[in-house]
Design a protein that fits this description.
heterodimer; A: mainly alpha; 4 domains; two-stranded antiparallel ribbon; two-stranded antiparallel sheet; 6 strands; 58% helix; B: alpha+beta; Arc Repressor Mutant, subunit A; 3-stranded antiparallel beta sheet
């Protein structure tokens, strides 16, 4: 009779109350539920009934005392602590899993550790889900835990500055729902296609309504918090990582367009030339060869970099040295730079033909001028 | 002293006094008590008290259909209830006077 005008949360609350009063005469229970049902119907449907009225069992106990009914039979009381254990575990999972996800984000440079933390978080949620799902849309047993009630009561009152601030933050929630859809789209596109702006935008347009629906749905069905909160933490970690890593590297890309500076010597801007291996006309390697450019300045292929480690270069002045110089390599074991000497080399020297003669003739005409102005460096 | 402890003893009188002014359904009685300044009174205590007074034969009830919500069960004082209210009021005044003399001086 009253059920048709009540929302799911109110019906659940009334059902809990009916169960807690089940030992009383049926007529009496009906009278009580009529009174309380009329009360619930006047409350805001979005109100958290457990937070406002206490769990149905506690409400029933208070009502029994005031009405002079006998206390609830021990069987009803005995089931309560069993439910509390499961609810406490579910609450712990809800608190711990986002922390695990954030830790996994911090440990991202060690993929094995990060993966272990993520797997642990997923397992915890899977173990808690049966408890949560059976607890009903408002997960009343979890909401009734003293810790949760204290947390709710500690919320700042709506009129205060802190209350207005938290209301403002809450009003930003839809923006987060959209952002997490974009993050999810970027992750899926990155995993399947290796990235791309257009497919990410298209997928984000599909995912955004789903994310918004999930946001509204989780306000009424609190069970969704268990999968959604860890996923939110994951999306937040990915979003922050994206800002920290993509931001600087894209700005490097942009500066690369305006000023294409790359240290060292490059073949067509693609292939780094790290060393030069001079050979004579017979293909025999030459050593102790100095190379100079057209202005007589020494050519240095190292770009001033002792060793390139990641994005950082340890720049220092180097004396001009003869070629081949060897290639500097970063040694991960010692954390230092080691110079790998030039190894054996076999080259195919093109046989001198009629077409090569004019090209070799051109340097020959200028050759006498260069050595006269440049003495080999001694350093 | 915890007001809820004090309240428990005088809740019967408070509910009877509210219903003496006008008939009311449970939530109305609750709001009447809160409006009078009894902020700490628990919802369940009021509904329990109403049931106890009703079962004790001090109240009568009647149902008023509502178009938008569930029907409302109104409670009203009957002759026994009014007698009880008079007695309780007298007892309360004597008690309050005694307490006032004790702590007021």
């Amino acid at each position: 009779m009253t059920a048709d005008v009540h929302g799911a949360a109110q019906q659940e609350y009334l059902a809990g109350l009916r169960a807690a009063l089940a030992d009383l005469p049926a007529g009496e229970v009906t009278e009580i539920l009529d009174d309380v049902g009329a009360h619930l119907a006047e409350l805001d449907p979005d109100d958290d009934l457990v937070a406002r009225l206490g769990p149905p069992q506690a409400y029933a106990a208070e009502l029994r005392t005031a009405a002079g009914y006998p206390a609830a039979p021990t069987a009803a009381i005995a089931t309560a602590p069993a439910g509390t254990g499961g609810a406490t575990f579910a609450l712990a999972v809800l608190v711990v899993t986002p922390v695990l996800v954030v830790l996994a984000g911090l440990a991202a440079f060690q993929p094995e550790v990060a993966l272990l933390l993520i797997v642990l978080a997923v397992l915890l949620v899977l173990v808690a889900l049966p408890v949560v799902v059976s607890a009903g849309p408002r997960v009343a047993r979890v909401a009734a835990l003293p810790a949760v009630r204290r947390f709710r009561e500690s919320q700042p009152p709506p009129g205060s500055a802190a209350g207005r601030a938290s209301a403002f933050l809450a009003s930003l929630q839809p923006a987060w729902w959209l952002l997490r859809a974009v993050v999810a789209a970027a992750l899926v596109v990155g995993a399947l296609l290796g990235g791309g702006i257009v497919p990410t935008v298209l997928l984000a347009l599909v995912l955004a309504p789903v994310s918004v629906w999930l946001g509204f749905r989780s306000r009424t069905d609190r069970r969704l918090l268990w999968p959604v909160v860890p996923l939110n933490a994951f999306a937040a970690v990915v979003a922050v990582a994206g800002i920290l890593w993509v931001g600087p590297s894209s700005s490097v890309d942009q500066s690369g367009y305006s000023s294409p500076y790359l240290p060292g010597l490059w073949q067509d801007g693609e292939r780094p030339i790290e060393d030069i291996r001079p050979v004579d006309a017979a293909g025999q390697p030459l050593s102790g060869v100095y190379l100079f450019d057209q202005d007589g300045r020494p050519i240095d292929v190292s770009g001033g970099a002792e060793c390139a480690v990641g994005e950082g270069y340890s720049v220092r002045e180097r004396p001009v040295q003869p070629y081949p110089r060897g290639t500097p390599r970063y040694d991960a074991d010692t954390g230092t730079c080691v110079l790998v000497p030039a190894g054996p080399l076999v080259v195919a020297v093109p046989t001198a033909g009629p077409t090569t003669a004019p090209t070799t003739a051109v340097p020959l005409t200028t050759a006498p001028a260069a050595p006269t102005v440049q003495a080999p460096p001694t350093g | 002293m915890d007001p809820t402890q004090l309240l428990r003893g005088v809740l019967d009188l408070a509910v009877l006094a509210v219903l003496d002014r006008a008939d009311g359904y449970g939530y109305e009685v609750l709001r009447g008590l809160r409006a009078a300044g009894l902020e700490e009174v628990g919802d369940a205590s009021v509904y329990g008290t109403l049931r106890r007074l009703y079962n004790a034969g001090l109240l009568t009830s009647y149902v008023v259909p509502s178009e938008e919500g569930p029907h409302r069960k109104y409670y009203s004082l009957n002759a026994h209830g009014r007698d009880r209210l008079t007695e309780s009021t007298k007892a309360w005044r004597a008690f309050a006077g005694t307490m006032e003399g004790l702590v007021g001086g």
